[in-house]
Bifunctional chorismate mutase/prephenate dehydratase (Modicisalibacter muralis), 363 residues
Amino acid sequence: MSDTSTDLDELRERIDRIDGDILRLISERADCAQRVARVKSAVDPQAVFYRPEREAQVLRRIMALNSGPLDAEEMARLFREIMSACLALEQPVKVAYLGPEGTFTQQAALKHFGESAKSLPMAAIDEVFREVEAGAANYGVVPVENSTEGVINHTLDSFMDSSMRICGEVVLRIHHHLLVAGTTRKDKISRIYSHPQSFAQCRKWLDSHYPQAERVPVSSNAEAARLVKTEWHSAAIAGDMAAKLYELERVAEKIEDRPDNSTRFLIIGNQDIPLSGDDKTSLVVAMRNQPGALHDLLEPFHRHQIDLTRLETRPSRTGVWNYVFFIDFKGHRDQPEVDAVLEEVRLRAAEIKVLGSYPQGVL
Ligand SMILES: O=C(O)C(=O)C[C@]1(C(=O)O)C=C[C@@H](O)C=C1
């Protein structure tokens, strides 16, 4: 017994010493970040402080150096928060996201920018775009595709009308829970609220566990969570953030039909992002309405061995834009082979807009 407590005392002393060292090192790092800010401002009075390519490099390096016992992602999450705090010292960053508070998009914004960023909920995707365009927020976060349900058309359409560029991406594992308030009669659940996408992602589970309950679609999971607070016979399907925000209980956890259910979000802003070493590029291309148009568009990618990661078609909204294709591929527009492909596509297309080259999601 006394041996154990001596061990415990010794270990805690060691932890105190280590914490002192970590504290000193984090402060030293924060001091460096402040100096970086002064260098940036001296070079350019309009300097941008947030550098996604550098952040991606820092996180990738930490993950590669890490040898446990914490896993690489966990370690990177700690460094994400350190960098978030360092960036806030340089310039507090405002991030608009598809709200309300408690949505998966807010979770994605925090995962990407860390807790020191100020996140601003917006009522709709085009409002996120407008907020960043107007300069009221520095960056925006919008969902773009879900692994189960496919593309989010509102986001693609917003890019057609906007000058916003893509500065990054973040992929979030989506876990849905069945949530109730403390006062809910769990054996009497007759109504379930959620966003239509979430209903679709949990369809099989609902069919087998709550076949009789009325499914009421609402504008967001967070709104569903808010509604059940006052209804003793209702439940909501929503995620961790909404559960925490509205202090709801979990009747069942991870009820999504596919365990790998994930959503990809885009970070939008006004800046062009330099190479990070592992990048993606997104384009929107309009082709003339003629046979072989899609083949002509894709052929240069194939010939230059550039890896396409996504291809979506949207109906055009003007005469010129007969077919509109959204294309994501691996590579950065500053790489010569990518530049060559873009030149060839430019010659074949009616219109082309590079939405951005940006680091592939790290976390
Ligand atoms: O390297 C920079 O440019 C910094 O500003 C430092 C730092 C960091 O904390 O590492 C902080 C914010 C940037 O987004 C990228 C990195």
Q: What stands out?
A: The CA atoms of residues 201 and 267 lie 24 Å apart. The chain has four domains: 2-44+52-89, 92-174+262-269, 181-240+247-252, 279-359.
